[in-house]
């Protein structure tokens, strides 16, 4: 049985972390937080701007600070950014302080779900399919290593997926 009260969602861009996080927080009566939104609020700039001005390294410094703070709070559903797991500080914070759910998603699905919006700077390049393929190869071992639960998101409606995760939480959490 798990005594930890927060749920942390990890997985690649387009996995549905932000979408599902909101639903899960509603279903479990927890507070939803998206680390990307907190980073933007604190910087007073959106993610494309942060990447433009500070590059990915600058964004990662901000992300480490925000994830360290948020993972210490009880009763959250935290949607992380897809690249949070590249930093060992974040992996340690996520793995040690809550229940980690990996939203496993294929590259074609990621591509379909991210192609319309322009707020993911890493994908605003000529070959997003190749970028997503390379990122998943590099990050998948990290997602898997810290996950308490892995769920496939390709062919399932977010609502059904949220119910599946709630079921797991209720079965494994001692205070649920
Ligand atoms: N299981 C799903 N099936 C279909 N579409 C989904 C699913 N999960 C998320 N989406 C859609 O994919 C897009 C990206 O979702 P988002 O929650 O922003 O992903 P992430 O935060 O993991 O990058 C959104 O338009 C969302 O509505
Ligand atoms: O995969 C990544 O490195 C990133 C994913 C994004 O979040 P989502 O996974 O919510 O799209 C956001 O943190 C930033 O654009 C970088
Ligand atoms: Mg997101």
Automatic annotation (TrEMBL):
Pfam families: SKI. Pathway: Metabolic intermediate biosynthesis; chorismate biosynthesis; chorismate from D-erythrose 4-phosphate and phosphoenolpyruvate: step 5/7. GO terms for cellular component: cytosol. The keyword DNA-binding does not apply. Mg(2+) binds at residue 18. It is found in: Cytoplasm. Its cofactor is Mg(2+). Signal peptide: none annotated. CDD domains: SK. It catalyses: shikimate + ATP = 3-phosphoshikimate + ADP + H(+). It is an enzyme of class 2 (transferase). Its EC number is 2.7.1.71. Binds 1 Mg(2+) ion per subunit. Monomer. Belongs to the shikimate kinase family. This is Shikimate kinase. It comes from Natronospirillum operosum.
